[in-house]
Design a protein that fits this description.
The complex is a heterodimer of chains A (323) and B (898).
Chain A: E1 2-6, H1 11-22, E2 26-31, E3 41-44, H2 50-57, E4 62-65, H3 76-96, E5 101-105, E6 117-120, H4 132-147, E7 154-160, E8 163-164, H5 172-180, E9 186-187, E10 193-194, E11 197-198, H6 199-211, H7 213-216, E12 220-223, E13 229-230, H8 231-242, E14 250-251, H9 253-270, H10 280-287, E15 290-292, H11 295-301, H12 309-321
Parallel strand pairs in A: 1-2, 1-4, 2-3, 4-5, 5-7, 6-15, 7-12, 8-11, 9-14
Antiparallel strand pairs in A: 10-13
Helix pairs in contact in A: 1-6, 2-3, 3-4, 5-8, 8-12, 9-10
Chain B: E1 14-20, E2 31-38, H1 40-45, E3 53-57, H2 68-74, E4 82-87, H3 103-117, E5 123-128, H4 130-141, E6 146-152, H5 166-172, H6 174-183, H7 186-193, H8 201-208, H9 218-225, H10 236-246, E7 253-257, H11 266-275, E8 280-283, H12 291-294, H13 298-310, H14 345-352, E9 359-364, E10 370-375, H15 376-392, E11 400-404, H16 409-421, E12 424-427, H17 433-444, E13 448-451, H18 453-462, E14 467-470, H19 476-482, E15 484-487, H20 488-492, E16 512-517, E17 527-531, H21 532-546, E18 553-557, H22 559-562, E19 571-574, H23 587-597, E20 601-604, H24 606-614, H25 621-627, E21 632-634, H26 642-651, E22 656-658, E23 661-663, E24 666-671, H27 674-686, E25 696-701, E26 706-711, E27 731-736, E28 743-744, H28 748-754, E29 761-769, E30 775-780, E31 785-787, E32 790-792, H29 794-802, E33 807-815, E34 822-829, E35 837-838, H30 841-853, E36 860-864, H31 879-890
The chains are: A alpha/beta (323), B alpha/beta (898).
């Protein structure tokens, strides 16, 4: 099958593209930087680049769309342009080019208004209540994508929950950098139960969605390891793998959430480019439960995670042991 | 008509009808306009044929709105019933007549209405508050139509030994009355505020709607004024007519009660039960006056109706044990399978035999000597004397007598004296805690309360029912203070009961004999009713299983068994200990008690054994010598860890150590000895026996008992009805034995559930059999955790975790929605944690690994400084509390304490 993967220079996108190549598919990628995926044809461009995008979708039978602006800060308009308009554009061109199936990779945060989530399924995306521009624009894009679903142009949404693994800069590197300098607190003693997704498992689930379109088109599915852990223990596991001391001081979650909101505003207002030390989004992620009912996801995708949380942490430790 | 869309009401139910009145309150020819909620037209429009009609009568100050859940249930095509819920005249949306309608008028009014409606049988009446008396009045006047009666918090008679409730007295106070009921809406508001949980605002509004404005509330005031508080009241004859007529009402009856009612309290329920002894009774612990709001009463009412339909109009559908406390005599055509020998038979035999002058019962004193003892002859004589005295004081067959006397000679005499009279002994122990004990005593509504000073003082403060009898003679001032009528000492004086010789005939084996209480570790303690036959069967089971014969000598350190000693014909001694706290039994006190009678058998709870081991250094050489003579130790009530038993074995080197498994509803069910436990554990560890492991091995069924399993389904329930005994199949444990309880007392719904597989008692425990026929208990059904793709029973993983040196007590629970729960291990560490919260990563890793060995994947590990345990056994962990706490903590919040 000829498959186009957008955003393949990222950790998850790269893993998806590599998995497809290993499975013997004809893989093309689309992103601004080289994908680094052996055996795939790279198209280089941004989602605002109509000409390259049109070229990339030509001849594709399936598309896995991961490209997005992922950040805790930045101007709202940038998020809208890439995440919402970029998706609208891609869907439009894909349908015109006769692409049959699209997997839109989203995030559980599209349906998260900040309350604890304990064992729920994939609730509908809710741009009005999602926190932060990333979640809001992903929610809008997801609604667009699902609205485009039709029998001859099938669209499914997969929401991997907190993807991590060796080479991950979003979670692992941040945790290690902060913990290494003693700047990572536990919120409320780190008790909040949080599920995550090891990158190999997320990639396998996303690819599975493309080949289970009969069962999953028109739907959104949350994907995770199905192994919720107290966040403190999870962070300790990552720190142990990375060879830095685990966080040992605790802050009330309410304080951190309030502080995060203030810091976020100040950072944007000051026009700072680097990530702020604490954001409301991060504080929420670290202090409220987020774990999901995986039964239906696994049944519909005919997929189970191959790498357990503890195996994943062992892989991570291996990664950091290498010189 | 109903003018707004009130929540829960289908507007098509609302109708008005004009009825010619024949009541004395109206001039001849008067026509009155009634408002009703009636689903009859709707049923016929939908082509549904009702099985009958529920005629629902509200009280004061509610209206037909009270019955909306019944209307909805009756409209369900699965069980169509026409439901006619009336608004009484001057009430709800019915006409304001400007008359004062008394009870007799209101009963007649209802008859006028049903005549006008052409209501034909079968009719089942449903009543609440004063609507209860009116509905029963209608039922008595229409025997040709009525096929059943349902009562909720109501009354038909003021018991003579008690004043009217203070709240009612206040409402009747002339100054308060007019203002409180009519001028203002205080009476309505107070009534609505009795709901628990509180009524939502829109429901309160619906109740208030027809009573806005003083002119709409005249009926409310008149209703209160019509309550016959004494014989001079104009409505007294009408009420007495209903009350007396009830005794001849033989149709099936159902009583659903909310005990937290300041007016219609348990004593009125007791009075109703005495008039309708065949009634099914369920008390919803925690519910109040507006029981129809507080609980789902529609489901049990329709279940009960379905049961009546099943018996084709028979008036006595007694396919199951009564739960009311009354009973039906045994069918004489069916001979006893085993000849009945009353509980006291061996006691009398001993008194009459060669051992008659030998010691029967003894109590130890702190100095290590017997403080008090009686021979068999003396014991027998004292029991008979006290029986006669109690009978003189009014205790008779079926009287409920609460015994609040610590185990020992006095309790033994009182217990057997009551049983011989056919009275029902109510045994609620202080191990329930003050609140639990108080709730239990009120639920059982004893007629008499025999207690030590402390218990009588508590009875006064907490308002426990029953005429008071002290153990010892009290000084007159104290007697008056505690409202004590007499004492056991006075009643037992020879000749005190002269004039009422004890009849030689024996009790009815099928009559209730005792109400015992569950420990309350899973919700409020439940009263468990035993008949004389069942108590006797318990004695026989213990005798056969453990070989305890006449002449055995036992130390009774465990309350339930302590009372069985004389019944077994065994010499019994009570050691020095605070029986309300088993932990207070010391090794020395045990040795003293053993030495006093050269005891061969010891009964002690696991908590008591733990303290015995902790204090073993206090035993003298002579004490050790005496302990060497013990041949049998029984410890029941909670699992006994094998290491503890091994320690006990060192102290009692010659004794066979047995830990029977059972519950208040069936004691014992299975038995196992220390050697058998060790063998079973070894087989489980080696994997040589199919089914061995994953739980506590409790051995094989005791003499006369059968045990089976209803397999667990994927949702963690045991929905089947076919008990199996296949190896390795996990499910709810069922027991069938002659000594299984008769019923839960006044808990019809729970009784039905527990007896839903005919011939079996559902224990609520889960477990499985191994290939050797041994039972392994895996926990409580309610504590099963339904993780994705796995139904996790707690005990196996808990045992694996407790094998870690750093863990003292572990509990497995779950958080999240059923079917996809995250498994949580809550541990109490050997070195107690300072604060409750998530376990440190290292401990969490160890616990997770240990649980995985037992096949359970744990998501989170939490530590607590101490597990919350029950008061009685100090061993059963309150998992409901733990799981609520775990849910809160793991959702992300400040841990706090469980």
């Amino acid at each position: 099958m000829r498959v186009l993967v957008t955003g393949a220079s990222g950790l998850l996108g790269g893993e998806v593209a590599r998995l497809l190549v290993r499975q013997g598919h004809d893989v093309a990628t689309f992103q601004r930087r080289p994908s680094g995926v052996d055996g795939a044809i790279d198209f280089r461009g941004s989602l605002t680049d109509i000409a390259v995008l049109r070229e990339a979708v030509q001849g594709a039978e399936g598309i896995i769309h991961l490209a997005a602006k992922v950040s805790f800060t930045g101007r709202a308009a940038e998020f809208d342009e890439v995440n919402v308009e970029g998706t609208r554009r891609l869907l439009h061109l894909a349908r015109a080019a006769g692409v049959r199936d699209v997997v839109f990779v989203s995030s559980p945060s599209v349906a998260n208004s900040g309350a604890a989530i304990a064992g729920l399924g994939a609730e509908p995306a809710d741009p009005d209540h999602a926190h932060g521009d990333y979640s809001r624009t992903k929610a809008e894009a997801e609604l667009l994508a699902l609205a485009a679903d039709a029998s001859e142009f099938r669209v499914a949404v997969v929401r991997p929950h907190i993807v991590w693994g060796p080479g991950d800069t979003q979670l692992v590197e941040r945790v290690l950098a902060r913990a290494g300098t003693g700047r990572l607190p536990l919120l409320d003693a780190g008790a909040a139960l949080i599920d995550t997704t090891y990158v190999d498992n997320a990639a396998a689930a996303i690819v599975a969605a493309l080949f289970r379109m009969d069962h999953v088109h028109g739907r959104a599915l949350v994907v995770s390891n199905g192994e919720p852990r107290p966040v403190g223990e999870l962070l300790a596991g990552i720190c142990a793998a990375g060879g830095v001391p685990a966080p040992s001081w605790t802050v009330p979650g309410g304080v951190a959430r309030a502080a995060g909101a203030v810091v976020e505003k100040l950072w944007t207002w000051a026009g700072r480019k680097e990530e702020p030390p604490m954001t409301r989004f991060l504080a929420e992620q670290l202090s409220t439960a987020h774990w999901y009912d995986q039964r239906e996801t696994r049944e519909l995708l005919d997929w189970t995670p191959a790498v357990s949380l503890d195996d994943g942490l062992a892989e991570l430790a291996e990664h950091y042991k290498r010189p | 008509m109903v003018t707004a869309d009130w929540p829960g009401i289908d507007p098509v139910w609302s109708r008005e009808t004009d009825v010619a009145s024949t009541s004395a309150a109206d001039a001849p020819g008067t026509v009155r306009r009634w408002h009703l909620l009636d689903n009859g037209a709707e049923l016929s429009r939908r082509g549904l044929v009702p099985a009958g009609t529920l005629l629902c009568v509200h009280g004061n100050p509610t209206w037909s709105y009270l019955w909306r859940t019944l209307l909805a249930a009756g409209s369900d095509p699965a069980h169509p019933w026409r439901v006619v819920a009336v608004d009484q005249l001057d009430m709800g949306y019915s006409e304001r007549t400007g008359t004062f309608r008394r009870l007799a008028d209101r009963i007649n009014d209802l008859g006028d209405l049903t005549e006008a409606l052409g209501l034909q049988g079968p009719v089942v009446t449903v009543g609440h508050d004063w609507g209860g008396a009116i509905s029963l009045g209608w039922a008595l006047a229409h025997p040709q139509h009525v096929t059943g009666v349902v009562l909720t918090n109501t009354a038909v008679h003021q018991p003579p030994d008690s004043g009217i409730p203070p709240a009612l007295r206040l409402a009747l106070q002339p100054v308060v009355h007019k203002w409180g009921t009519t001028t203002s809406d205080v009476f309505l508001r107070v009534t609505h505020s009795l709901a628990s949980p509180p009524l939502p605002a829109e429901i309160k509004m619906a109740y208030m709607a027809p009573y806005r404005g003083g002119s709409r509330r005249a009926g409310v005031g008149n209703f209160v004024a019509d309550i016959p508080v004494d014989a001079s009241h104009p409505s007294f004859p009408a009420l007495r007519g209903v009350a007396e007529g009830l005794r001849d009402l033989k149709v099936p009856a159902l009583m659903l009660w909310g005990p937290r009612d300041p007016i219609f309290s348990d004593r009125y329920l007791k009075d109703l039960i005495s008039r309708l002894p065949h009634a099914k009774v369920h008390r919803f612990e925690g519910a109040g006056h507006l029981v129809a709001e507080d609980r789902n009463i529609a489901a049990p009412i329709f279940d009960w109706l379905a049961m009546q339909e099943g018996v084709d109009g028979s008036n006595c559908p007694e396919e199951e044990a009564t739960t009311a406390g009354g009973h039906l005599p045994e069918d004489p055509a069916e001979p006893d399978p085993v000849p009945f020998r009353p509980l006291w038979e061996l006691l009398s035999e001993q008194a009459a035999g060669p051992e008659g002058r030998g010691t029967a019962v003894a109590e130890m004193a702190a100095d290590g000597m017997a403080a008090r003892s009686l021979s068999w002859q003396q014991l027998d004589r004292k029991i008979l004397d006290l029986s006669a005295g109690l009978r003189e004081a009014g205790v008779g067959s079926g009287s409920r007598v609460s015994l609040m006397v610590p185990p020992g000679v006095d309790l033994t005499i009182a217990l057997y004296a009551c049983l011989r009279l056919g009275a029902v002994v109510v045994v609620a122990d202080a191990g329930l805690g003050t609140k639990g004990l108080s709730r239990a005593v009120k639920a059982a509504t004893p007629d008499f309360l025999i207690g030590i000073d402390k218990a009588l003082a508590a009875a006064s403060v907490l308002g426990w029912p029953g005429r008071r009898i002290s153990v010892q003679d009290l000084p007159p001032a104290r007697r008056r203070l505690l409202n004590v009528e007499t004492s056991l000492a006075a009643l037992a004086r020879p000749g005190a009961g002269r004039g009422s010789e004890l009849p030689t005939g024996t009790v009815d084996p099928a009559a209730p004999a005792a109400v015992l209480f569950t420990s309350g570790s899973t919700g409020p303690a439940k009263g468990v009713l035993y008949t004389h036959r069942q108590l006797a069967a318990m004695r026989d089971t213990v005798a056969e299983t453990f070989g305890i014969r006449s002449g055995a000598r036992l130390v009774a350190g465990f309350a339930p068994f302590a009372l069985l000693g004389p019944a077994l014909g065994a010499v019994s001694v009570t050691p020095v200990m605070d029986v309300t706290a088993p932990r207070t039994l010391t090794a020395r006190a045990l040795a003293d008690a053993v030495a006093a009678i050269d005891a061969t058998v010891v009964f002690a709870s696991p908590a008591a054994l733990r303290n015995v081991i902790a204090t073993r250094d206090g035993v003298s050489a002579a004490g050790h010598k005496a302990l060497e003579g013990v041949e049998l130790l029984l410890s029941a009530g909670a699992p006994v860890p094998e290491p503890l038993l091994t320690e006990v074995q060192r102290l009692l080197p010659r004794a066979s150590l047995h830990t029977p498994y059972g519950m208040t509803e069936a004691l014992p069910v299975t038995d196992i000895s220390l050697e058998q436990i060790q063998a079973a554990d070894a087989e489980a560890a080696a994997g040589t026996m199919a089914g061995a492991g994953n739980g506590v091995c409790v051995g094989r069924p005791v003499h006369g008992a059968r045990v089976a399993i209803i397999p667990l389904a994927a949702d963690g329930t045991a929905p089947g009805s076919h008990p199996v005994t296949e190896v390795g199949v996990t499910g709810e444990i069922l027991v069938s034995a002659p000594h299984v309880k008769e019923a839960y007392d006044r808990l019809w719904l729970i009784q039905r559930e527990s007896a839903s597989v005919p011939g079996w008692h559902r224990t609520g425990d889960v477990g499985h059999f191994d290939a050797a026929g041994r039972l392994w208990v895996e926990g409580r059904l309610a504590h099963v955790v339904t993780a994705p793709g796995a139904v996790v029973t707690p005990v196996g993983a808990e045992q694996a975790i407790e094998r870690l040196d750093c863990v003292r007590l572990a509990a497995i629970t779950g958080v999240g929605p059923a079917g996809t729960k995250a498994v949580v291990a809550v541990v109490e560490t050997t070195l107690p944690a300072r604060k409750a919260g998530p376990a440190a990563p290292q401990l969490a890793g160890l616990v997770r690994g240990a649980a995985l060995e037992a096949g359970v994947k744990v998501s989170a590990v939490l530590v607590v400084p101490a597990q919350p345990t029950d008061i009685r056994h100090n061993a059963k962990i309150d998992r409901t509390r733990l799981s609520h706490w775990a849910s809160r903590v793991l959702a992300g919040g400040r841990p706090g304490e469980p």
